[in-house]
Design goal:
mainly alpha
Length: about 300
């Protein structure tokens, strides 16, 4: 492998992925998904403020916003606690108590609406990743265009260059999405959260989203290099990413240990990136890195040995 070749291929791949048709649709889909989630989460607050004003509430706009947020947080906390308790292993302690503390951390100690937005994005983002990264190698393998690149660069440089270029693209999209959602919240509800509270949590959430994207990008690279057909690659990636939690949920109904199937992908621990205990966050990061290394190795081995 050649570092210079990897850098050049990554740079070209990142620029092309944004200018190409799939890249533009992926960018539009990502921003639309993020802003739609933000709008859905902010709409109840705006509706509650309108209702309170219509009833003749005499408080200031700041007091009204805080009252509405307190009511929404009170209603949402049991739901969020239940969602988080599903990701808590019973042998690690009392799952309900841990989930309640976790929910309090995300909804009371951190900007509640931004925490809710990140939770929803966390569950939908893997499917966005599959759409953005499914064609890392498949099209060029099927059209045999990679043979011309092999005249100037080795297989390892091509593999890691394209993978790195896709990672740069996802980082740029997630940073843009984080800035857009944070600015939307800050301008829409200026009296509810200060920029000093929003920006650090937005930076942390964006970093967590980048971390959880790594294994899914590596998985898409592996499948794309193994199948060599774009539509089939998209189909298989979507089935794997969506099928793992579905099979784990169905299997857990009959056998408790079937739930561990979730840990073959970050589904089993990705929410712990937002945990209140640093040790849990560290384990989640380690899990993402481990799966990324595994899928990258499988993709590299397949790409360097198959017929191109």
């Amino acid at each position: 492998m050649n570092r210079r070749h990897i850098t050049l291929i990554a740079s070209y791949s990142a620029r092309y992925s944004v200018r190409g048709g799939i890249g533009l649709v992926f960018l539009l889909l990502s921003l639309t998904f993020g802003l739609l989630v933000a709008h859905i989460m902010l709409q109840p607050v705006e509706l509650g403020m309108r209702i309170i004003h219509e009833r003749g509430h005499a408080g200031s706009p700041e007091e009204v916003q805080k009252e509405v947020l307190a009511r929404i947080t009170e209603v949402a906390k049991p739901v969020v606690s239940w969602m988080l308790s599903q990701k808590t292993l019973s042998e690690l302690g009392d799952p309900d108590r841990d989930a309640d503390r976790w929910a309090s951390y995300m909804l009371e100690e951190r900007p509640a609406l931004l925490s809710a937005i990140f939770l929803i994005l966390l569950f939908g983002w893997p499917f966005i990743v599959s759409f953005g990264a499914f064609d890392l190698y498949a099209s060029d393998i099927s059209s045999r265009q990679l043979r011309y690149q092999l005249l100037r660069a080795d297989r390892g440089s091509i593999f890691f260059g394209r993978l790195l270029g896709m990672l740069v693209t996802f980082v740029a999209v997630l940073v843009l999405l984080g800035v857009t959602v944070t600015a939307y919240m800050g301008l829409k509800l200026p009296a509810m959260y200060s920029w000093g509270a929003l920006i650090p949590w937005a930076l942390y959430g964006t970093g967590a989203m980048i971390c959880v994207s790594l294994p899914y990008i590596a998985l898409c690279g592996w499948i794309s290099s193994a199948i060599g057909a774009p539509f089939a690659s998209l189909t298989v990636n979507s089935l794997i990413i969506g099928g793992v939690p579905l099979l784990a949920t169905l299997g857990k109904m009959t056998h408790e240990y079937a739930g561990y199937l979730l840990y073959t992908l970050p589904w089993g621990f990705q929410t712990r990136l937002f945990h209140h205990e640093p040790a849990q966050v560290g384990l989640a990061v380690a899990g993402c890195m481990l799966l990324t290394a595994l899928f990258t190795w499988l993709g590299y081995r397949n790409f360097t040995t198959r017929d191109l």
